[in-house]
Amino acid sequence: MSLALRGVSKRFGALAAVENVDLDVPTGALLALLGPSGCGKTTLLRIMAGLELPETGQVLIDGVDATDWPTRDRQIGFVFQHYALFQHMSVADNVAFGLRVRPRRSRPSAAAIQRKVDELLELVQLGSAGARYPKELSGGQRQRVALARALAVEPKLLLLDEPFGALDTQVRQELRRWLRRLHDELHVTSIFVTHDQQEAIEVADRIVVLNRGRVEQVGEPGEVYDAPASAFVHRFLGQVNELPVAWREGRAYLGPLEIPTGQAGEPRGGAAPTPPKSVALVRPHDLDILGLAEEAGPGAGAAAGPAAWPATVLAVRVIGPIVRVDLAADGRSADAPLEAEISRERFDTLRLCVGQRVSLTLRRWRLHPA
Amino acid sequence: MSGVPPLGRWLAIALALAFLGIFLVLPLLVVFTSGLAHGVGAYVAAIADPIARAAILLTLLVAAIAVPVNVVFGVTAAWAIAKFEFRGKSTLLTLIDLPFAVSPVIAGLVFILMFGSNGWFGPFLQQHHVRIVFAVPGIVLATLFVTFPFVARELIPVMQAQGREDEETALSLGATGWQTFWRVTLPNIRWGLLYGVLLCNARAMGEFGAVSVVSGHVRGLTNTIPLHVEILYNEYSYVAAFAVASLLALLALATLIGKSLLEWRQPDLRRAARGAR
Q1: Strand duo A157-161 + A189-194: pairing
Q2: Residue of B83, B99, B104, B225 lying closest to B168 (CA atoms)
Q3: In Å, what is the CA distance from A71 to each residue of A66, A77, B86, B186, B272?
Q4: Is the pTM of this model over 0.90?
Q5: Which one of A86, A87, A102 has the shortest CB-CB distance to B174?
C-alpha cells in the first residue's frame, strides 16, 4: 500500500521532534529514513505506525486519511531495534502470535497457523529453530524471528526501526543483503530507519534525509550522494573536505585555485553564489593528487591562477584497494588537513610517502551557503 | 574488596551474623519453644480453640480480600505509571508510598474519624445500619490501606525496565488491549507480581497497629491472629499466645522461602526488588 504524510508535526515538550513533514511512499518502495540521532526519524516511523499521534498534519494510507486509526487497524508490521520478542514464548509461538489473536471468524485453523509458521521460519532461514526460545538465539537470528513475526500477519506496510543497529558488522552486512532480496521477493512497501548512510545507500531504493525534524532531501541513493541538496546532506552522506570560497575581483577561489563559475561542479544551473559567504564541499575521492613532475606539464599556468595546489603529505593509510592521504595544503592551517582518497594503483604510481611535496587538483565540488 | 584485611572482613561478617542471630533467629526459636513448652497437646489445643479458630478464619478472610484487591490496584497503577506519561504521575507515586510513611495507628484512626459514630460518614452509616468500624469491613479497609504499596511498588520497576515495546508489537500484530495484557504484559511481570503478592499477603496477615485501632477487639468476631495473640499474652496464657504466634512465624518463614525460591528462579527480580526500595 502507499503511504503519505501531509504537514506532519510532533513536539515533545519544547522540543520539535518532527516539523511539517511531507512525504510520499509509493506502493512497493523500500525507503530509508536517514539522519543523525535525534533527527526525528524514529518519531516519524512511530507516527506512520500509529504508535504516536501527530499534533498537526495527516497520515494517508492508500489516499485515505488514517491519522486517527489505531495501530492494530493499519495492517502494518513493526520491527523494533531490539526486536521486542516475547521472551516467554517459543520462536514458533512468537511468529504465530499475530494469527492467534485474530477474532475467531478470521482466525486460521491451528493446522493452517502451523503451516504458515513453518513457511515463514523457512523464509527467514530458521526452519529448525521453532521450538527454541528467544534467549537461545543470536542477535541476527532474533532479528529474523522479529521479521517473520511481523510478516505473519501479511502486513501491507513493513516498518523497521534501526533494523541492524544492534548487530555486529559482519552479520549486519549479511542481513542487509538478505533484507534487500526479501523485499525484491515480497514487494511489501517497507520503510526503515537508520543513522548509517552506507546502509541506506546499500539497501534502499529511495532515501529520505532528515535533520532536526525536517526533510532535507528525498531521492535515489546515487542522487542524494552525488547531488546533495544542502551542506547538511553533503556532510552527512560520506566524508567531505570543507574549503571556504574566497572572492577576489569578482572571481571565486578555493585556496590558490580559481574556480570557473558556471561549471558543472557548481550547484543549480551555475547561478553565481552571492559573495561573500559560501563553502565548497569536496569528497575525498574528488581530490586528485599529482606528482610534482605532472604539475610542470603543459597546460599549467594557462588559467588565470595556478592549475594545482601545492601540498605536503601528512599521513598515508592503505585500506585494501583504496588509499587515504592526509595533506597539508599550502596557505591552509595545518590543523585542517585535506583528505584525499586515491586508488591503490594511483598510489603505487605516485610512490607517495610522508613529507613528500605534491600538488592537488579538484575534480568535483559543490558550493553551499556557509 | 581485596583491600580489606581478612581480620576486618571476618569481623564484619561475625557482627552481621551475631546481629541476625540475636534479633531474628533467637526470637523465632523462642516463639516455637515457648509454644511447645507444654507439649504438642497444649499447642494443638491453643490453635484448635474456637476463638483462636475464629481469629485464624478472619485473618484468612481479610487476606483473601486485601490481596486480590491490591493485585488489581497494583497492576493498574504500575501499568499506568510505567507505561504512560501523564500529569500528576509523581503525585501518584508519592501517594502510593504514603502507607509506608504513615504510622499504622494513624491509618487506623483515620478510618475511625471517617466511619466512626462521630465521624464524617458516621450518622449516614448508622441510619442505614451499616457497621464499618469495630467490624470486619473496617478491618479490611485498614488492611487494604497498609498493604496498598506492596504490589505496585514491586511491579513499577519491573514494568519500567521492560518498556512499552512488547505491548506495541502486540498491538501492531493486531492484538486487542485485553489480549495484549493477558498474553504479553502479564507473563512478563508474573514473577514480580508473585513476589509482590507474597509480601502483600504476609503484611495483610500480620498487620497489628491499624487493625487494632479499628477492630474493637470483639473475641471470636473482630480479632485477627495478631490481636488474638496480644489478648492471650495479656492474660498470661503464654503457651497459647506463642502457639498461635507460631502460625504467623510459620507464615513469615514460608514467605521468605517462597521469596528466595522466586529470586533463584528469576535473577532479574533481585535487581528489580532492590530498585524498588
Answers
A1: parallel
A2: B83
A3: 10, 10, 21, 21, 30
A4: no
A5: A102
Predicted confidence at residue B156, as pLDDT, reads 92
DSSP string spanning A321-370? Answer: TEEEEEEEETTS-TTS-EEEEEEHHHHHHHT--TT-EEEEEES--EEEE-
What is the distance between the alpha carbons of residues A173 and A185, in angstroms, rounded to a whole number? 19
Interface of B with A in 112-151 (CB under 8 A): none
Low-confidence winner among A112-126, A217-231, A301-315, B9-23 (lowest mean pLDDT): A301-315
B175 touching chain A per CB within 8 A? yes
Antiparallel, parallel or unpaired: β A76-79 and A206-211: unpaired
Neighbours of B101 (CB within 10 A): 9
State whether A98 and B188 contact (CB < 8 Å). Answer: no
Whether the per-residue pLDDT at A303 is higher than 70: the answer is: no
Mean pLDDT of chain B: 86
Phi then psi dihedrals of residue A38, to 5 deg:
85, 10
Where exactly are the structural domains of chain B?
1-35, 40-276
Check CB contact under 8 Å for B171 and A150.
Answer: no
Q: Is the ipTM of this complex over 0.85?
A: no
Residues in chain A with CB shorter than 8 Å from the CB of B165 are: 80, 82, 84
CA angle B234, B238, B242 (to 5 degrees): 110
Count of residues making up chain B:
277
Query: Which of A70, A84, A152 has its CB closest to that of B166?
Result: A84
Q: Are B34 and B238 in contact (CB under 8 A)?
A: yes
- Does B161 contact A at CB distance below 8 Å? no
Q: Give the tens place of pLDDT for each residue, B210-250.
A: 988 888 888 888 889 999 999 998 988 888 888 889 988 88
Distance from A323 to chain B by nearest Cα, in Å? Answer: 44
Burial (Cβ within 10 Å: 0-12, 13-18, ≥19) of residue A37: exposed
Cell numbers 516498518: residue: A159
CA distance A118 to A138: 20
B132-159: burial string, b at 16+ Cβ within 10 Å, e else: bbbbbbbbbbbbbbbbbbbbbbbbbbbb
Chain A residues in contact with B183 (beta carbon < 8 A):
86, 97, 101
pLDDT tens column, B39-60: 888 888 888 888 989 999 999 9
Instruction: Inform me whether the C-beta atom of residue A113 falls under 8 Å from chain B C-beta atoms.
Output: no
> Residue A198: pLDDT above 70?
yes
Homologous superfamily of B40-276: MetI-like (1.10.3720.10)
Q: Which three cell numbers stand for residue B47?
A: 490453635
- Decide: A291 and A353 in contact? Cβ < 8 Å: no
Q: What's the farthest any 2 CA atoms get from each other in chain A? A: 83
**A95 close contact with B: CB closer than 8 A:** no
Cell 497494583: give the residue: B74
